[in-house]
Write a structure and sequence with these properties.
Blueprint: H1 2-23, H2 29-49, H3 55-78, H4 84-103
Helix pairs in contact: 1-2, 1-3, 3-4
Length: 104
């Protein structure tokens, strides 16, 4: 169950990271409320997950999910470059997340 909570926390981290772009400096109320809600929910779920998972592993997986998802959505939604080097770096992060999951 802790891994499911951690995965959901990572998805919410993606939501708030991408949401920051749409708040336009916290001047748009709806995106700002959704972003803030995602921030709080993400940290709460992370807190619940670390009750049983090692802190270092959980935090690294949480930020890794957030990083990978945010970069991929940046490429898909915002037209950020999808260079071979960027995609290679993302695959290294995914490999690190998988390794941490397997050793926890």
């Amino acid at each position: 169950m802790a891994w499911i909570l951690l995965f959901l926390a990572g998805l919410l981290e993606i939501g708030w990271a991408v949401g920051l772009k749409y708040t336009e400096g916290f001047t748009r109320p709806i995106p700002t409320i959704l972003t803030a809600g995602s921030m709080v929910a993400s940290v709460v779920l992370l807190g619940l997950a670390v009750r049983t998972l090692p802190l270092g592993t959980a935090y690294a997986v949480w930020t890794g999910i957030g990083t990978v998802g945010t970069v991929l959505l940046g490429i898909w939604l915002l037209g950020e470059p999808a260079t071979a080097v960027r995609l290679l770096c993302i695959s290294l992060i995914v490999g690190g997340i998988a390794g941490l999951k397997l050793t926890a």
